[in-house]
Amino acid sequence: MWSTFFVTDEEGRTVGPGVPGMSAAAAPGAGQGAGGLTNLMTGRSTFGGNKRRRTTSTGHVMSEAQEGKIKLAFFVAIVGVVLTVLGLGTEFWVELAPAKNFYNNQTCLTAHYGLWKGCTKTLWVSDIDPERESCGPAELPGESNCTSFKFFTTGENAVIFQKTTQKNLNVAAAMLALFSLFLMVMGAICITMSLSKEIIFFLKPASICFILSGVLVLLSVMVFHQSVLAFLASDHTVPLHHELSWSVSCIGCAGAVLIIGGILFLLLALPYSPWQRCLPHKDSSS
How far apart, in Å, do the first and last CA atoms of the chain sit? Predict the structure, then answer.
Protein backbone atom coordinates (compact mmCIF):
# COMPACT_ATOMS: atom_id res chain seq x y z
CA MET A 1 0.00 0.00 0.00
CA TRP A 2 1.44 3.30 -1.15
CA SER A 3 1.86 6.00 1.42
CA THR A 4 1.32 9.59 0.39
CA PHE A 5 3.56 12.39 1.60
CA PHE A 6 4.12 16.01 0.59
CA VAL A 7 7.28 17.53 -0.78
CA THR A 8 8.35 20.94 0.45
CA ASP A 9 10.86 23.33 -1.12
CA GLU A 10 13.75 25.12 0.58
CA GLU A 11 11.48 27.90 1.89
CA GLY A 12 9.08 25.45 3.52
CA ARG A 13 6.28 25.77 0.97
CA THR A 14 4.35 22.66 -0.06
CA VAL A 15 4.99 21.76 -3.70
CA GLY A 16 2.84 18.68 -4.16
CA PRO A 17 2.46 15.04 -3.32
CA GLY A 18 5.47 12.89 -3.87
CA VAL A 19 5.95 9.26 -4.65
CA PRO A 20 8.12 6.79 -2.93
CA GLY A 21 11.67 6.75 -4.12
CA MET A 22 11.66 10.43 -5.00
CA SER A 23 13.46 12.63 -2.55
CA ALA A 24 12.95 16.31 -2.01
CA ALA A 25 16.33 17.02 -3.57
CA ALA A 26 15.01 15.85 -6.92
CA ALA A 27 12.38 18.59 -7.10
CA PRO A 28 14.76 21.41 -7.93
CA GLY A 29 16.21 19.34 -10.72
CA ALA A 30 12.77 18.84 -12.17
CA GLY A 31 12.15 22.57 -12.03
CA GLN A 32 15.43 23.18 -13.78
CA GLY A 33 14.52 20.68 -16.44
CA ALA A 34 11.19 22.38 -17.06
CA GLY A 35 12.91 25.76 -17.16
CA GLY A 36 15.51 24.44 -19.60
CA LEU A 37 12.74 23.08 -21.82
CA THR A 38 10.98 26.45 -21.71
CA ASN A 39 14.17 28.27 -22.60
CA LEU A 40 14.79 25.87 -25.45
CA MET A 41 11.28 26.44 -26.84
CA THR A 42 11.58 30.24 -26.58
CA GLY A 43 14.96 30.31 -28.30
CA ARG A 44 16.98 31.43 -25.28
CA SER A 45 19.07 28.34 -24.79
CA THR A 46 22.83 28.37 -24.79
CA PHE A 47 22.99 26.34 -28.01
CA GLY A 48 22.68 29.32 -30.42
CA GLY A 49 18.91 29.73 -30.36
CA ASN A 50 19.26 33.52 -30.71
CA LYS A 51 21.01 33.61 -34.05
CA ARG A 52 17.92 34.28 -36.12
CA ARG A 53 16.35 36.92 -33.90
CA ARG A 54 18.43 39.00 -31.54
CA THR A 55 17.02 40.98 -28.69
CA THR A 56 18.64 44.34 -28.06
CA SER A 57 19.27 45.90 -24.68
CA THR A 58 16.26 48.18 -25.16
CA GLY A 59 13.94 45.23 -25.58
CA HIS A 60 13.46 45.62 -29.35
CA VAL A 61 14.19 42.69 -31.58
CA MET A 62 16.47 43.28 -34.58
CA SER A 63 15.66 40.79 -37.29
CA GLU A 64 17.90 39.94 -40.20
CA ALA A 65 15.57 41.82 -42.55
CA GLN A 66 15.86 44.97 -40.46
CA GLU A 67 19.63 44.61 -40.28
CA GLY A 68 19.73 44.35 -44.07
CA LYS A 69 17.68 47.53 -44.42
CA ILE A 70 20.07 49.36 -42.10
CA LYS A 71 23.06 48.23 -44.16
CA LEU A 72 21.34 49.36 -47.36
CA ALA A 73 20.61 52.81 -45.91
CA PHE A 74 24.21 52.96 -44.66
CA PHE A 75 25.41 52.27 -48.20
CA VAL A 76 23.34 55.22 -49.45
CA ALA A 77 24.91 57.46 -46.80
CA ILE A 78 28.41 56.23 -47.69
CA VAL A 79 27.78 57.24 -51.32
CA GLY A 80 27.01 60.75 -50.10
CA VAL A 81 30.17 60.80 -48.00
CA VAL A 82 32.32 59.71 -50.96
CA LEU A 83 30.80 62.39 -53.20
CA THR A 84 31.42 65.01 -50.52
CA VAL A 85 35.07 64.06 -50.11
CA LEU A 86 35.52 64.05 -53.89
CA GLY A 87 33.99 67.50 -54.22
CA LEU A 88 35.89 69.02 -51.31
CA GLY A 89 39.23 67.65 -52.43
CA THR A 90 39.09 69.14 -55.92
CA GLU A 91 39.45 72.75 -57.05
CA PHE A 92 36.91 72.74 -59.89
CA TRP A 93 34.19 74.60 -58.00
CA VAL A 94 34.12 77.58 -60.37
CA GLU A 95 35.79 78.34 -63.68
CA LEU A 96 36.73 81.88 -64.69
CA ALA A 97 37.62 82.83 -68.23
CA PRO A 98 38.07 86.13 -70.12
CA ALA A 99 37.51 86.41 -73.85
CA LYS A 100 39.80 84.03 -75.70
CA ASN A 101 41.34 86.89 -77.69
CA PHE A 102 41.72 89.23 -74.71
CA TYR A 103 45.51 88.76 -74.38
CA ASN A 104 46.67 87.59 -77.83
CA ASN A 105 45.54 85.46 -80.71
CA GLN A 106 47.60 82.36 -79.84
CA THR A 107 47.08 81.68 -76.12
CA CYS A 108 44.49 82.57 -73.54
CA LEU A 109 44.30 82.31 -69.78
CA THR A 110 41.65 80.59 -67.68
CA ALA A 111 41.34 79.97 -63.94
CA HIS A 112 39.48 77.66 -61.62
CA TYR A 113 39.47 77.35 -57.85
CA GLY A 114 37.76 75.64 -54.95
CA LEU A 115 37.80 75.95 -51.18
CA TRP A 116 41.50 75.39 -50.63
CA LYS A 117 43.47 76.46 -53.71
CA GLY A 118 43.18 78.10 -57.11
CA CYS A 119 44.80 77.35 -60.45
CA THR A 120 45.50 79.38 -63.57
CA LYS A 121 45.97 77.63 -66.88
CA THR A 122 47.32 78.79 -70.23
CA LEU A 123 45.50 77.28 -73.19
CA TRP A 124 46.06 77.39 -76.91
CA VAL A 125 43.38 79.25 -78.78
CA SER A 126 43.53 76.68 -81.58
CA ASP A 127 42.35 73.97 -79.11
CA ILE A 128 39.24 75.92 -78.10
CA ASP A 129 35.92 75.46 -79.82
CA PRO A 130 35.59 78.19 -82.49
CA GLU A 131 32.02 78.88 -81.41
CA ARG A 132 33.10 79.52 -77.82
CA GLU A 133 33.70 83.19 -77.07
CA SER A 134 35.55 82.77 -73.76
CA CYS A 135 38.71 80.85 -72.97
CA GLY A 136 38.27 77.31 -71.76
CA PRO A 137 37.16 74.87 -70.62
CA ALA A 138 39.83 74.25 -68.02
CA GLU A 139 40.00 70.52 -68.85
CA LEU A 140 41.88 71.29 -72.08
CA PRO A 141 45.64 70.56 -72.10
CA GLY A 142 47.86 73.46 -71.16
CA GLU A 143 50.35 74.82 -68.68
CA SER A 144 48.83 74.97 -65.20
CA ASN A 145 49.97 76.79 -62.06
CA CYS A 146 48.22 76.11 -58.73
CA THR A 147 48.67 77.86 -55.40
CA SER A 148 46.98 77.28 -52.06
CA PHE A 149 44.90 80.04 -50.58
CA LYS A 150 46.29 81.86 -47.55
CA PHE A 151 42.90 82.38 -45.94
CA PHE A 152 43.66 79.96 -43.11
CA THR A 153 47.33 80.90 -42.51
CA THR A 154 48.11 84.58 -42.99
CA GLY A 155 44.55 85.72 -43.73
CA GLU A 156 45.46 87.18 -47.11
CA ASN A 157 43.03 87.44 -49.99
CA ALA A 158 43.86 86.01 -53.39
CA VAL A 159 43.97 88.12 -56.55
CA ILE A 160 42.86 86.47 -59.81
CA PHE A 161 42.42 88.51 -62.99
CA GLN A 162 42.83 91.71 -60.94
CA LYS A 163 39.85 90.68 -58.81
CA THR A 164 40.07 90.07 -55.07
CA THR A 165 38.43 87.19 -53.25
CA GLN A 166 36.30 87.69 -50.15
CA LYS A 167 38.06 85.66 -47.48
CA ASN A 168 35.21 85.82 -44.95
CA LEU A 169 32.78 84.09 -47.29
CA ASN A 170 35.39 81.59 -48.46
CA VAL A 171 36.34 80.68 -44.90
CA ALA A 172 32.67 80.34 -43.93
CA ALA A 173 32.05 77.95 -46.83
CA ALA A 174 35.10 75.89 -45.87
CA MET A 175 34.08 75.72 -42.20
CA LEU A 176 30.58 74.56 -43.10
CA ALA A 177 32.06 71.82 -45.29
CA LEU A 178 34.45 70.66 -42.57
CA PHE A 179 31.72 70.58 -39.93
CA SER A 180 29.55 68.54 -42.28
CA LEU A 181 32.40 66.02 -42.59
CA PHE A 182 32.57 65.81 -38.79
CA LEU A 183 28.85 65.05 -38.63
CA MET A 184 29.26 62.36 -41.29
CA VAL A 185 31.94 60.66 -39.20
CA MET A 186 29.72 60.80 -36.11
CA GLY A 187 26.79 59.35 -38.04
CA ALA A 188 28.97 56.52 -39.38
CA ILE A 189 30.12 55.72 -35.84
CA CYS A 190 26.51 55.56 -34.63
CA ILE A 191 25.52 53.18 -37.43
CA THR A 192 28.54 50.97 -36.74
CA MET A 193 27.62 50.76 -33.06
CA SER A 194 24.00 50.04 -33.93
CA LEU A 195 25.00 47.08 -36.11
CA SER A 196 27.69 45.73 -33.79
CA LYS A 197 25.88 46.25 -30.46
CA GLU A 198 22.43 45.57 -31.97
CA ILE A 199 20.95 48.75 -30.49
CA ILE A 200 18.31 50.42 -32.64
CA PHE A 201 18.47 53.59 -30.55
CA PHE A 202 21.67 54.71 -32.33
CA LEU A 203 19.73 55.09 -35.58
CA LYS A 204 18.11 58.29 -34.33
CA PRO A 205 21.32 60.29 -33.68
CA ALA A 206 22.76 58.87 -36.91
CA SER A 207 19.78 60.17 -38.89
CA ILE A 208 20.16 63.62 -37.32
CA CYS A 209 23.89 63.69 -38.12
CA PHE A 210 23.42 62.73 -41.77
CA ILE A 211 20.51 65.12 -42.35
CA LEU A 212 22.40 68.03 -40.78
CA SER A 213 25.54 67.17 -42.75
CA GLY A 214 23.57 67.22 -45.99
CA VAL A 215 22.03 70.59 -45.12
CA LEU A 216 25.45 72.03 -44.22
CA VAL A 217 26.94 70.79 -47.49
CA LEU A 218 24.22 72.56 -49.46
CA LEU A 219 24.70 75.70 -47.37
CA SER A 220 28.42 75.55 -48.12
CA VAL A 221 27.67 75.62 -51.85
CA MET A 222 25.34 78.59 -51.43
CA VAL A 223 27.88 80.56 -49.40
CA PHE A 224 30.59 79.75 -51.94
CA HIS A 225 28.39 81.02 -54.76
CA GLN A 226 27.89 84.27 -52.90
CA SER A 227 31.68 84.55 -52.50
CA VAL A 228 32.09 84.10 -56.27
CA LEU A 229 29.57 86.88 -56.96
CA ALA A 230 31.38 89.16 -54.52
CA PHE A 231 34.69 88.26 -56.17
CA LEU A 232 33.38 89.20 -59.62
CA ALA A 233 31.98 92.49 -58.31
CA SER A 234 35.30 93.55 -56.74
CA ASP A 235 36.71 94.83 -60.04
CA HIS A 236 35.28 95.34 -63.52
CA THR A 237 38.53 95.93 -65.40
CA VAL A 238 38.67 92.43 -66.89
CA PRO A 239 35.30 91.04 -68.02
CA LEU A 240 35.03 87.40 -67.01
CA HIS A 241 32.76 84.54 -67.87
CA HIS A 242 32.15 82.30 -64.86
CA GLU A 243 30.37 79.00 -64.37
CA LEU A 244 30.12 76.52 -61.53
CA SER A 245 32.01 73.36 -62.39
CA TRP A 246 31.62 69.64 -61.72
CA SER A 247 32.88 69.75 -58.14
CA VAL A 248 29.80 71.75 -57.17
CA SER A 249 27.65 69.13 -58.90
CA CYS A 250 29.26 66.44 -56.74
CA ILE A 251 28.63 68.47 -53.60
CA GLY A 252 25.00 69.13 -54.54
CA CYS A 253 24.35 65.44 -55.22
CA ALA A 254 26.14 64.54 -52.00
CA GLY A 255 23.91 66.83 -49.95
CA ALA A 256 20.76 65.31 -51.44
CA VAL A 257 22.00 61.74 -50.93
CA LEU A 258 22.97 62.44 -47.31
CA ILE A 259 19.55 63.88 -46.53
CA ILE A 260 17.87 60.85 -48.12
CA GLY A 261 20.09 58.50 -46.10
CA GLY A 262 19.25 60.34 -42.88
CA ILE A 263 15.53 60.11 -43.61
CA LEU A 264 15.87 56.36 -44.23
CA PHE A 265 17.58 55.91 -40.86
CA LEU A 266 14.83 57.93 -39.20
CA LEU A 267 12.14 55.71 -40.73
CA LEU A 268 13.98 52.57 -39.62
CA ALA A 269 14.24 53.93 -36.07
CA LEU A 270 10.47 54.30 -35.73
CA PRO A 271 8.79 51.66 -33.53
CA TYR A 272 6.16 51.09 -36.23
CA SER A 273 6.11 50.96 -40.00
CA PRO A 274 4.90 54.26 -41.50
CA TRP A 275 3.58 52.41 -44.55
CA GLN A 276 1.28 50.31 -42.40
CA ARG A 277 0.00 53.43 -40.65
CA CYS A 278 -0.62 55.32 -43.89
CA LEU A 279 -1.85 52.32 -45.88
CA PRO A 280 -3.47 49.86 -43.43
CA HIS A 281 -3.82 46.31 -44.69
CA LYS A 282 -7.42 45.28 -45.33
CA ASP A 283 -8.67 41.91 -44.17
CA SER A 284 -9.67 39.43 -46.83
CA SER A 285 -13.15 39.11 -45.23
CA SER A 286 -13.87 42.83 -45.77
Answer: 64
